[in-house]
Amino acid sequence: MKITKALFLVFLLLFIGCSKESTEPSGSNKIKIGVVVPYSGECAAFGTPSVRAIQLAVKEINDSGGIMGKDIELIIKDSRTDAYYGKTKAVELAEDEDVIAILGADNSDVSWAISDELDNLGVIQITGSSTASGLTHQDGCFRTVPYTAQEAQHIVSFIRSITNTMRILYVDDLYGEDLSEKVRQNFVNTGGVVQRMVAFESGKTSYSAEIDSIYTESPGTPQIFLIAYPQSGAQIIRDWKASGRPGVWYLSKDLKAPEFITNAFSENVEGLIGFGPHGLDTTYTLFQEAYIDYWGEDPYNYRCTEHWYDAMILLGYGILRANSLQPEIIADSILTVSFAPGSLVTVGEFARGKDILINGGEINFEGASGRVNFSAQGDVTGAYETWQIVGGEFVPYESRR
């Protein structure tokens, strides 16, 4: 069953006109939601904080009395940061666990692999951290994080203000190829020169050859943008330091994890600057305080936690507004619950939003990441930040000025 966003309303009208029977499965007091995130592999650092953000949202939903008299139940699978394995786990969730939606995956390669399978199975997919632009064209796939075109604009705006030349060392996968090319295009379009672009494979024990390559014909101190995941990124930084070469390095969003600092050695990354999507001050602070209160740690240490919280809350509102567990109807509702002129609701206000919806009103959800107004393709625009590693921790770069 293909879910095409442009046809959701048509499906909804046909459904209402052709059936008066209940569309909900009987005998279940839970609404099952699958989660596919990495607890192992290159992106293992992001599994726990992402799930904790989702669980915070689930607690808020269930504490309000649930949805349609049912609590949300999460069924969580490890993607191993592997496209084939992650796809297999997603299919298992859809076919064996009867989930109505899957939050996942974390990185773009895995999200891409599972999107076609879920679309064919009629299961909604929402990712809070996959930014490769190719996902825009996947039916039934939503994301609460902005995609690479916006990411590249922010990155280039900063680096271009400092230098006219740069080099790009990037992971050879869907995300790395997409972001590196968009950064190159933006940098060149603003009059800059990209001197070298070098791809690398994840999981290697040494990147000395790639370091040699990125430094080819490099007089002076080159400016290098690194697109990597925590494990390989840490190895690259260690190999760079061991080479004794000078350089100014900038970091992509997926290196915002304490595990990267630890494995790269904090003295090697002190002062390095990175970029990533980040929530607006007011709503993010509400989320940050709730997360710290519940989990005892700061979500700012990891990228995209706020986007995963928003993904679960939006799914909850979508189900609530649809008053149905049919994916086509839920997907149509998801597209409507974050737009004006509905009543504004934000972080920590699910109970209030629920009351508005069940009484026939409309809502405009602004989440921990800010506005989450979906396009017809399931994409959002969003805010970005520049951060820096100082004293072994991530801090907003602006606060260092």
Give structural attributes.
Rossmann fold; alpha/beta; 2 domains; disordered N terminus; elongated; 15 strands; 401 residues; 7-stranded mixed sheet; 42% helix
Q: Could you give the topology of this structure?
A:
Layout (H helix, E strand, L loop, with lengths): L7 H11 L11 E8 L9 H17 L7 E8 L4 H14 L4 E4 L3 H14 L2 E4 L13 E3 L4 H13 L4 E7 L2 H16 L3 E8 L7 H7 L8 E5 L2 H14 L4 E4 L6 H7 L1 H4 L3 E5 L3 H15 L9 H18 L4 H8 L8 E3 L4 H9 L4 E5 L2 E2 L12 E7 L2 E4 L5
Parallel strand pairs: 1-2, 1-3, 3-4, 4-5, 6-7, 6-8, 8-9, 9-10, 11-12
Antiparallel strand pairs: 10-14, 12-13, 14-15
In short:
By secondary structure, the protein is an alpha/beta fold.
3D structure, described in words:
With 401 residues, the protein is α/β, with parallel strands linked by helices. It folds into two domains: 5-12 and 28-145 and 282-371, Rossmann fold; 149-271, Response regulator (Rossmann fold), CATH 3.40.50.2300. 42% of the residues lie in helices and 19% in strands. The strands form three sheets. It has a seven-stranded mixed beta sheet with strand order 7-6-8-9-10-14-15, sandwiched between helices. Strand 3, helix 4 (108-121) and strand 4 form a beta-alpha-beta unit. Helix 1 (8-18) crosses helix 13 (327-334). The protein starts with 7 loop residues before the first helix and ends in a 5-residue tail after the last strand.
